[in-house]
Design a protein that fits this description.
It is built from 5 helices and no strands. It has 209 residues and is mostly helical. The chain has 2 domains: 75 residues; 125 residues, no CATH class. Helix 3 runs antiparallel to helix 4. The longest helix is centred in the first third of the chain and has 74 residues. It is rod-shaped and about 75 Å long. 8% of the residues are buried.
């Protein structure tokens, strides 16, 4: 009887252990399944997040490329700007100013009517004027050369117009200065002739005496 009771007891205990192990295995399997689902979800979420970040990165790079292309386009000078009539007119005015300066200064120097400080003053005036013209021409080259400035077409046109007016001011100045200087030159030529005539007249009178 005792053996039977012990057998029943061990059988029940074994069954309990087996049931407990089965439950544990079931719970463990459920946990493993849940963990797998979580991992799959996490991986999908990471993939989506990564794609999202890549998309954002692509958008940023695309946006940056658009900005870069835009600014690069601003650095390229439209051929119409280079062929703008006032570009050639500015260069033409510069050549006229240089020609006028050389002719006038040479005439004054060879005419032997201006000396010392007068010639120095005339030379300083012309030097400052030529310096202004060169600055204007340098800026014109920058405005009409690719890769120098980031400007829209209308901004380049506006700047070229401003340079044109500046060169016109220089040209008007040299014309006015030369006119005044030539009037002074003619006045001195007249004075010299009068002196020569006077000396000649008094020389004749002296010889007659």
């Amino acid at each position: 009887m005792k053996k039977l009771l012990l057998l029943v007891f061990f059988t029940v205990l074994l069954m309990s252990n087996m049931n407990a192990q089965a439950k544990q295995r079931k719970v463990l399997l459920q946990q493993i399944a849940a963990l797998k689902v979580y991992i799959d979800a996490a991986q999908k979420g990471y993939s989506i997040a990564k794609k999202g970040l890549n998309t954002i990165g692509d958008l940023k790079r695309g946006d940056l490329k658009l900005h870069t292309d835009y600014f690069n386009s601003l650095k390229k000078v439209n051929p119409k700007i280079k062929n703008y009539t006032r570009v050639a007119e500015i260069i033409g005015l510069q050549l006229k100013i240089m020609k006028s300066y050389r002719r006038t200064y040479t005439d004054f120097k060879e005419g032997d009517l201006f000396h010392g400080s007068e010639l120095d003053y005339i030379n300083r005036v012309f030097s400052r004027l030529i310096g202004n013209c060169n600055d204007t021409l340098d800026e014109l080259i920058i405005v009409t050369t690719d890769g120098q400035l980031e400007m829209k077409d209308d901004e380049r046109i506006e700047r070229i117009d401003s340079l044109y007016y500046s060169m016109m001011d220089n040209y008007s100045f040299i014309q006015s200065f030369n006119k005044q200087a030539k009037l002074l030159h003619l006045s001195r030529v007249k004075e010299r002739k009068e002196v020569q005539m006077t000396n000649k007249h008094y020389g004749i009178l002296k010889d007659g005496l």
